[in-house]
Amino acid sequence: MGTMNFILHTSAFILQQTTSSRPVAVVTGASSGLGAAIARSMAQQGYAVVLAARRAEQLEALAGEIRGGGVALAVPTDMCDPTQIDALAEQTLAQFGRVDVLVNNAGANTRQRAYNPSDEQIATIFGTNVYGPMRLTRALLPRMLEQRRGHVINIGSVVAHIATPGNSLYAASKHALRAWNDSLRREVAHKGIRVSLLSPGYIRTDMTMGMRGIPMPGPQVVATAVLRLLRRPRREVVVPGVYRVAIWAANLLPPLADALLGRMRR
Ligand SMILES: NC(=O)c1ccc[n+]([C@@H]2O[C@H](COP(=O)([O-])OP(=O)(O)OC[C@H]3O[C@@H](n4cnc5c(N)ncnc54)[C@H](OP(=O)(O)O)[C@@H]3O)[C@@H](O)[C@H]2O)c1
User: Fold this and answer.
1) The domain 23-265 is classified under which CATH number: 3.40.50.720, 3.60.110.10, 3.30.300.30, 3.30.420.40?
2) Is residue 47 annotated as a catalytic residue, yes or no?
3) Strand partners for 49
């Protein structure tokens, strides 16, 4: 019994030492695509990562892989459910006592005409892409403010600058996320909290599966951009950088944007 107690206490002590010395990152949408790549890359850089998404099996598989050389906690969470979001924040703080980085990455997309979205589509797209990040940030930011240190990275999209036809809800949600991101950044910059928007163009993931004829890099380009942002915080990063030209042109020449993007409606 004495030996067993000794082993248990020593294991708990070692676990505490290995977890407490690491910065802590929460990554939503970590069950696939960009979120999984971001979580993996951050874990390789020494972050203890909290993995959130709905699919528990995928989260556990990634957590198991990361635990081979790092620290990971899987917390199945539906980002449309405020209670589950609060539980994610509580579990993170109970386990690690701090949070250094929040990557609001979970996102949903749907194709529909701008004039006839269903109520369910409206609730799902805005719930996941806008209200979820707002609620999770609300739950975790107080601890960052206490620490006077923290970085919130919101995964936006190029469509937050150029609204494409056929997925207006998604475009509207990413515009809303971008506006909220900018307000938040301006509110907390003087308190030691960084806020960055990472705006990907088309990237090869489940979300873009089935789209043909568009060259797409893999998710690692976004994960690498996150690591760069952590080293050198910036307001916004567009990845791949070539999409900056499209954003610039669409803002400068709206009639041209209408003519070119209008073709996509068919
Ligand atoms: N791929 C692109 O071309 C592209 C371009 C611009 C921006 N983005 C953005 O990048 C982010 C990641 O997307 P992705 O390309 O990696 O697509 P993905 O592979 O489909 O990943 C989406 C992630 O969001 C999670 N998610 C969806 N609904 C959720 C909910 N209600 N609660 C919790 N998690 C939820 C999914 O996990 P579960 O299903 O397990 O819940 C999944 O992990 C999104 O915000 C997306 O808008 C992607």
Assistant:
1) 3.40.50.720
2) no
3) 25, 72
Q: Which two tokens stand for residue 120?
A: 């369910």
C-alpha 199/C-alpha 154 separation (Å) is: 8
Rounded to two decimals, the pTM is 0.94
Three-state secondary structure string covering the chain: CHHHHHHHHHHHHHHHHHHHCCCEEEEECCCCHHHHHHHHHHHHCCCEEEEEECCHHHHHHHHHHHHCCCCEEEEECCCCCHHHHHHHHHHHHHHHCCCCEEEECCCCCCCECCCCCCHHHHHHHHHHHHHHHHHHHHHHHHHHHHHCCEEEEEECCHHHCCCCCCEHHHHHHHHHHHHHHHHHHHHHHHHCEEEEEEEECCCCCHHHCCCCCCCCCCCHHHHHHHHHHHHCCCCEEEECCCHHHHHHHHHHCHHHHHHHHHHHHC
> How far is ligand 1, taken at its centre, from the CA of residue 104, in Å?
10
Is residue 205 in contact with ligand 1, taking CB distance under 6 Å? yes
Q: Where are the domains of the chain?
A: 23-265
Alpha-carbon span 85 to 249, nearest angstrom: 38
40 residue type, one letter: R
- Give me the residues of the chain with pLDDT under 70, please: 1-20, 265-266
User: Ligand 1 pocket, 36 CB below 6 A?
Assistant: no
- The two structure tokens encoding residue 168: 């207006």
Q: What angle do CA 17, 18, 19 make, to 5 degrees?
A: 95
Give residue 9's pLDDT.
53
